[in-house]
C-alpha cells in the first residue's frame, strides 16, 4: 500500500466548542467548519496544520465510540486515533486482511469531508486505533 501522510490525529473531547477556545484562541489554529457524521455518532471539527489536521471529536450520543472512549478514560478526552492517508483504500484493507490482521471495517465507510475511511483494530496495530483515509 502507499501511505502518503498523516491525514489527521483524532482527539476525543467532551465539548467541541469549549475545546476550540484553546485550539483556536490560544494556539491560533483555524477550525475549517464542523460536520456531524451520523454513521460515527460524532460532531467533528477540523484544524489543519501543514499537511495534516487535528480532528476534534465530540460524541452526539451516549453510546457512540467517542462516548465509550471518554467513559473508559475516566471522563476525560484524549488521542483516540491516528489516520493515515492512502491512495487506494480497498487495496490497503485487502492487504491488511491478507496478512492476517484485523480490520474493524472490511469495507470503506463515509468519513468527514467525504473521505473513504476504514478502522484497523488496536490488537493488530499493537495498541493504537488506526484509521485509513482516502480522499477523492
Ligand atoms: C468521523 C471520522 C473521520 O475521521 O472521518 C472518525 O474519525 S470517527 C472516530 C470514532 N469512530 C470510531 O472509533 C470507530 C471505530 N472504533 C470502534 O469500532 C471501537 O471504538 C473499538 C476500537 C473497536 C473499541 O471498541 P470497544 O471500546 O467497545 O471495545 P473494547 O473495549 O473491547 O476494546 C478492545 C481493545 O481495544 C482497546 N481500545 C479501544 N479503543 C481504543 C483506542 N481508541 N485506542 C487504543 N486502543 C483502544 C481496548 O483497550 C481493548 O484492549 P484490551 O482488550 O487489551 O483491553
Ligand atoms: Co478520524
List the helices and strands and how they pair.
Layout: E1 3-12, H1 16-26, E2 34-37, E3 42-49, E4 52-59, H2 65-72, E5 78-86, H3 89-98, E6 109-111, E7 115-120, H4 122-125, E8 130-134
The structure holds (S)-Methylmalonyl-Coenzyme A (MC0) and cobalt (II) ion.
Domain VOC: 5-135
Keywords: Isomerase, Metal-binding
Family: Belongs to the methylmalonyl-CoA epimerase family.
Question: If you had to describe this structure to a student in words, what would you say it looks like?
Answer:
- With 136 residues, this protein is an alpha+beta fold.
- It has a single domain, classed as 2,3-Dihydroxybiphenyl 1,2-Dioxygenase, domain 1 (Roll), CATH 3.10.180.10.
- It is 24% helix and 39% strand.
- It has four helices and eight strands.
- It has helices at residues 16-26, 65-72, 89-98, 122-125; strands at 3-12, 34-37, 42-49, 52-59, 78-86, 109-111, 115-120, 130-134.
- It has an eight-stranded mixed β-sheet.
- Strand 3 (42-49) and strand 4 form a beta hairpin.
- The longest helix is centred in the N-terminal third of the chain and has 11 residues, at 16-26.
- It is globular and about 45 Å long.
- The model has no long low-confidence stretch (mean pLDDT 97).
- (S)-Methylmalonyl-Coenzyme A binds at residues 10, 37, 40, 42, 44, 55, 57, 65-66, 68-69, 80-81, 83, 104, 111-112, 115, 117, 119, 122, 127-129, 131.
- InterPro entries: Glyas_Bleomycin-R_OHBP_Dase, MeMalonyl-CoA_epimerase, MMCE/EMCE_epimerase, VOC_core.
- GO terms for molecular function: metal ion binding; methylmalonyl-CoA epimerase activity.
- Residues 5-135 form the VOC domain.
- It holds the Pfam family Glyoxalase_4.
- Belongs to the methylmalonyl-CoA epimerase family.
